[in-house]
Amino acid sequence: MSEFEIKAILEAHKAGEEVNLDGKSIAWLLLKGVDLSNVSMIGLDAEEADLSESKLSGVDLRGANLKEIILTDADLSNADLRGANLVAADLRGANLRGANLAGANLKGANLAGAVLSEAKLMGADLKRSVLCGACAYTANFSGADFQWANVEGLYFDSSTKGYSKEANNGK
């Protein structure tokens, strides 16, 4: 998609129109601070795009290619990211409260300081990811792979499923 097309879509969304980015490409674009809340983006290609500080709550990003995307301090609360490719994504400080990341590929992703409370990460691939200082109260990590992940300072509680300090020590 061209920058002009993206601007038109953002204006339509701002005006209350229903917009759809299913299967579109915004790869390598700088879209810092945009509001795309509740937009359907199934299969979106946003490889290496910069959506830092953006409002993406409730978005549908199932199966999206988000490899190396920058989502620092973005609001992805209640987003559907099932099966998304988030390899080496920068999610530092992102709000993923209630997000569904079941089966997502988060290899090498940086989730330092992210909010993962109530998130669903069943079967997620978290190999070599960074979760330092992330908050995962009541999250569900059942079947997630933490091999070589840095989980130092990960906040979790007794209702966090599929994670315990003893069982998941980054090996």
Automatic annotation (TrEMBL):
SUPFAM superfamilies: Pentapeptide repeat-like
Domain of life (superkingdom): Bacteria
Membrane spanning residue stretches: none
Annotated protein name in UniProt: Pentapeptide repeat protein
Provenance organism: Lachnoanaerobaculum saburreum F0468
